[in-house]
Amino acid sequence: MTESHPEPDGDGFTQLWPTLFLRRRLPGREAANEALLALIEDLESRNRDLTTDYRETNLLALEHAAAGWLKDCVNKTAIDYLKRVGLAYPVNWSLQGWANVNRRGDYHDPHNHPHAYLSGTYYLSVPKQPEAQEARKDLRPGAISFYDPRGAVNMSAIKDDPQIEAEYTLRPEAGEILLWPAFLFHFVHPNLSDEPRVSVSFNLVLKWSDAYLPRQD
Asked: pTM, whole model, 2 decimals?
């Protein structure tokens, strides 16, 4: 057993294996978004494969005022997240950030982010999606879906169980930041607008220390 494990409440219940997800709007987003969009437009003019060459440029390490603002916001958001998880000791990390410019029809296959501890996305421009008149009714353009890491748990679905839905889908808005455990699989639905959807995704990579190892009894 590890030194840290959940304790049952007074009635003997223990909530096991939750997945903490964060979604919030960042203060100062309007002016910062305008500057970040100009920065990304400039970067893409020099690299047409900016979105797929995500390892080439660490946007959050650039000497740029808006990139620095976003880096500070990501760090603050990560600190809040770790406090909510209950980590009461210092944790050190590095950030890797990259731009996503999704034009009409662009999407991202289901994936997670190996070698990272937390992952997230900040949205700069989220165009309104057209009504799906000739397409399938269940089409969800512009959305992002996250999937329950407990494989096939939905096989035991029963009415009103809040933890039984296999998929969590939302439509983000410009100025919002999302943060989640990096192991969580997610799918970015196609953009069906003629305007690009622009965001900055990032990974929080731990600077490893043996102090992070749980003690084994």
From this structure: 0.91
Three-class secondary structure of residue 169 per DSSP: strand
CB 185 within 8 A of CB 122: no
What are the residues whose beta carbons fall under 8 Å from the beta carbon of 135, sequence distance 6 or more? Answer: none
Instruction: With CA atoms as reference, report the closest residue to 186 among 15, 6, 13, 21.
Output: 21
What would the pLDDT profile of 69-107 be if each residue is shown by its tens digit?
999 999 999 999 999 998 989 999 999 999 999 999 999
Residues contacting residue 151 through CB under 8 Å, at least 6 positions apart: none
22-208 folds as Jelly Rolls (2.60.120)
* Residues 14, 6 contacting (CB under 8 angstroms): yes
